[in-house]
Backbone:
């Protein structure tokens, strides 16, 4: 059969999840507390419907059933994360044997079902003991992270072939240190810059350790949420605003991770505003010589940018938004169920940018998907009829296909997410899964999109 959109033979079809969002069992199996457990304890009202991370989608107890579902819907790969506070409950020191056993079983079960596990080491979930020492503001915590990464490589490196140091490292910077959306709810650009810098250093050090340990045929990378920045017009002031937004939110991690250095223009802005972080001798060389093998790209929506319309008050604390404003593009297509713009071509623009400016680094789409509030209303004949999600995935895949035709080195597509899961302060508000989860009973049901995706992965196209 010839398909209009045929993907390369070894294309990775799958989905992504993260530990805190699916495992549950937050107080079981010897797990220590992380910032999410702690924040929920002290401020439950910051979470949608007051639902915290204790139970989430109970993957901890149901992983076998879930992996069978992954297999059923044609996954040949899946990205999960290890919970640092499950593996090493206090963040450093003693390893928790029950966690070792759990992750070993999960990984082995995936492999036994021909699902290649891609393992991410950090998905927003700092152990609380280390957060209390200053979290990413502390260089000692960077070392604790590297020790944790080494432990994970040592334990699972003989069977995991794809490793990732961080998921969306800019998110804890923005949400935790600029916009008061995540714990520790700090609003301070100087501290935010230090957190960002230490995260990049932590990633480079983990990569160095991985290479020293000579992990069998393994590759290591990072997962970034790349949000292409589009200027309102070709007016130089709009172009500049857009370029600066791109520097702050994309290139602040993309350049050090892939090219091994920060963009000079970003350094200049940080310096002008007296926000330079503390660095150590040898850091420059560390970043230069430990760039990633592979890049995961999370893409949901574009950023629409225009020049600032008023001069910000120079006495107000620094914010990246001193340099640009957002605007809503007239006529844009929307995911009305989540309030995010849908712009499918953005995924192609990212891949072409990687091809042209980042050495065509090996990449894959590590998250792309559609959150839907109140999704149960689309339930019919015992199944969620999520045709909107099928359209969303298909239209993005067409652009991924186009990028491949034009020489992009993109190797796979992971949908966010395998199943409905608990999301950072939004809890179960927006449903993303191929598999719907009844939060009361933990019953799993495939959505219409799951059947569609199964066919796509089996035919390697559509
Ligand atoms: C990404 C995160 C995921 C997931 C997703 C959806 O940024 O990597 O962990 O949460 O966003 O976000 P939300 O549930 O807020 O719509």
Residues:
């Amino acid at each position: 059969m010839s398909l209009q959109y045929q993907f390369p033979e070894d294309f990775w079809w799958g989905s992504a999840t993260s530990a805190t969002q699916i495992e549950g069992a937050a107080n079981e199996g010897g797990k220590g507390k992380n910032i999410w457990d702690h924040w929920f304890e002290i401020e439950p009202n910051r979470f949608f419907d007051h639902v915290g991370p204790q139970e989430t989608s109970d993957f901890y107890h149901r992983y076998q059933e879930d992996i069978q579902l992954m297999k059923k819907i044609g996954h040949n790969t899946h990205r999960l994360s290890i919970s640092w506070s499950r593996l090493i409950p206090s963040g450093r020191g003693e390893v928790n044997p029950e966690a070792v056993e759990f992750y070993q079983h999960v990984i082995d079960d995936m492999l036994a079902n021909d699902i290649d596990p891609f393992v991410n080491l950090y998905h927003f979930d700092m152990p609380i003991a280390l957060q209390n020492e200053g979290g990413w503001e502390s260089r000692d915590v960077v070392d604790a992270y590297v020790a944790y990464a080494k432990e994970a490589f040592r334990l699972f490196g003989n069977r995991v072939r794809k490793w990732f140091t961080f998921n969306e490292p800019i998110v804890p910077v923005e949400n935790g240190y600029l916009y008061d959306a995540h714990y520790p709810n700090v609003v301070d650009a100087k501290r935010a810059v230090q957190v960002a810098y230490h995260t990049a250093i932590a990633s480079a050090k983990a990569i160095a350790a991985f290479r020293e340990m000579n992990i069998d045929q393994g590759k290591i990378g990072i997962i970034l949420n790349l949000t292409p920045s589009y200027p309102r017009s070709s007016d130089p002031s709009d172009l500049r605003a857009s370029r600066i937004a791109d520097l702050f939110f994309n290139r602040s991690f993309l350049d050090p991770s892939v090219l091994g250095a920060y963009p000079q223009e970003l350094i200049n802005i940080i310096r002008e505003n007296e926000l330079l972080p503390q660095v150590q001798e040898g850091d420059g060389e560390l970043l230069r010589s430990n760039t990633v093998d592979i890049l995961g790209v999370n893409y949901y929506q574009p950023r629409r940018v225009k020049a600032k319309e008023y001069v910000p008050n120079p006495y107000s604390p620094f914010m990246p938004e001193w340099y640009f404003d957002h605007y809503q593009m007239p006529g844009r297509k929307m995911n009305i169920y989540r309030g995010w713009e849908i712009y499918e071509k953005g995924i192609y623009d990212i891949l072409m940018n990687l091809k042209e400016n980042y050495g065509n680094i090996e990449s894959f789409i590590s998250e792309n998907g559609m959150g839907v509030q109140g999704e149960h209303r689309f339930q019919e004949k015992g199944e969620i009829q999520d045709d909107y999600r099928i359209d969303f995935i298909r239209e993005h895949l067409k652009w991924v296909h186009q990028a491949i035709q034009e020489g992009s080195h993109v190797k796979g597509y992971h949908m966010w997410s395998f199943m409905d899961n608990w999301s950072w302060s939004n809890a179960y508000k927006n449903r993303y899964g191929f598999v719907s989860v009844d939060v009361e009973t933990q019953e799993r049901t495939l959505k219409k999109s799951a059947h569609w995706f199964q066919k796509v992965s089996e035919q390697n196209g559509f």
